[in-house]
Amino acid sequence: MKRKKYYLDPPRILVLGFSLIILIGTVLLTLPIATADNQGLPIVNALFTATSATCVTGLVVVDTGTTFTIFGQLVILSMIQVGGLGFMTFATLFALILGKRITLKERILLQESLNILSLEGIVKLVKQILVFTVVIETMGALILSIRFSLDMPLVKAIYYGIFHSISNFNNAGFDLMGEYKSLTNYVADPTVSLTISSLIILGGLGFIVMNELFAYRQKKRLSMHTKVVLMTSAILLMIGTIGIFLFELSNDNTLKPLSLTGKILSSFFQSVSSRTAGANSLIISEMNQTSLFLIVFLMFIGASPGSTGGGIKTTTFTTLIGAVWSQIRGKQDVVFFHQRVGYETIYKAITVTFSGLFLVVLTTMLLTITEQGKDFLAILFEATSAFATVGLSMGLTPELTPIGKTIIILTMFAGRVGPLTIAYAITVRKNPDVFKYPKGKIMIG
User: Fold this and answer.
1) Residues 170, 79: contact at Cβ < 8 Å?
2) Chain centre to alpha carbon of residue 53
3) How many C-alpha atoms does 96 have within 13 Å on its Cβ side?
4) Roughly how many angstroms between the first and final C-alpha of the chain, as a whole number?
5) 45 and 58 Cβ atoms separated by less than 8 Å
6) Which of 2, 54, 383, 444 has the CB geometry, 3.0–4.6 Å to 364, for a possible disulfide?
7) pTM of the predicted model, to two decimals?
8) How confident is the model at residue 262, as a pLDDT?
9) pLDDT at residue 142, as a whole number
10) Is 135 helix (H, G, I), strand (E, B) or coil?
11) CB-based burial of residue 429 (10 Å sphere; 0-12 exposed, 13-18 middle, 19+ buried)?
12) How many CB atoms lie within 10 A of CB 419?
């Protein structure tokens, strides 16, 4: 009898790759050198932190700024960078440096990792991604370092500038400000708010979109994907900004004490961050329930495909809205910018949305069991934040039980890798059907 070979296809490799990065990070964070008390993190907290960093989430069970040494913080920053861009991007970088040829299998892995449709020009795209990343993160670090130097010593300001630039471009939301304050001390500071907002937006648009925008002066055209991403992102940013501004305008603990400029600036920042970043300039737990529910909605949608962010993605949401609108109008096709969306794309959008919704509901249900006595909205907020790899929290994360932490760890991992990728990785491939069953009728609505 022939022994059956076990084939590691792209989904399995991606799942194993992220798992390996998390495992290495967990071990490093348990070392005494990683924490200020020279005792290292307990294994569950180390695993939680490593998962949150690699999955660019930002949920934390210990305060990053006060708990970790420079070594521990650099370990977290490294995992954020690798997790945000994808380990296959870095593997390709090392291969190019060593002068190695990128094989077809590696190109397919890159295609899966970056969530793009074609293998054409993929190595060139990876090079452009690395250039974009270096340029954008360097500019963000420079601006933030200059601003932070007004409040702290120069060397510390440069370090803080670099850390927060990388963290926010990768939509991670980790910060070094201490005491879980995030950026609340800079709530009305235009330099910090607008710089970090720009980093978050650029990281969340997706590298395909950035590449097309960069090449627009030569090609003078944008794909339907890029147009949909830009349109949806702009609409969601506007809805979030206006919604938070109106809902928090009379809240004494958030917007009311601020000037009109501060109100607009903080509303915009929180709208941007709610999509996938996790940094906050307003105290989340002090916000009104209406605002919190709006943020849950924004978190669930998330960023765009091929970006450093999570969620079901902007294109998925818009495709579903387009399908509903076409059905209401009695049309068969979903059309954006005079181009038709394929039925397979609509089916995938439905599958991704249902999978994400199922994961959020399941996580919320399990947390209501393990975290008894906690506010339901706080639990729903935590579950959605973990799935969408956002990192915002109403203060529940540090209070989670060990089982609750484990549930959030699994949710963050599934949200970053993707429920469908995990499903493909653990299921056995079947040959396509060679026949079709007769069509039946089922009543809907």
Assistant:
1) no
2) 11
3) 13
4) 53
5) no
6) 383
7) 0.88
8) 92
9) 96
10) helix
11) exposed
12) 18
Are 308 and 230 in contact by the 8 Å Cβ rule? The answer is no
339 SS3 class: strand
Q: For the chain, which residues make up each domain, given as ranges?
A: 10-425
Two structure tokens written together for 239: 């809805």
DSSP at 68:
B
Query: Which parts of the chain sit beneath pLDDT 50?
Result: 1-6
Give me 172's structure tokens: 């991670």
Per-residue confidence (pLDDT) for residue 156, from 0 to 100? 94
DSSP 433: P
Q: What is the DSSP string of 161-220?
A: HHHHHHHHHTT-----SSTT-TTGGGTT-HHHHHHHHHHHHHHHH-HHHHHHHHTHHHH-
Give one DSSP letter per residue of 296-337, joined into a string.
HHHHHH-S-TTSS--SS-HHHHHHHHHHHHHHHTT-SSEEET
CB 405 within 8 A of CB 50: no
**Taking the CB of residue 233, how many other CB atoms lie within 10 A of it?**
22
Q: Can you tell me the distance from the alpha carbon of 14 to that of 102, in angstroms, rounded to the nearest whole number? A: 17
What DSSP designation does 249 have?
T
Distances (CA, A) of 297 to 32, 166, 200, 244, 275: 40, 26, 18, 12, 9
| Count of residues making up the chain | 445
SS3 3: coil
Q: What angle do CA 277, 401, 46 make, to 5 degrees?
A: 60
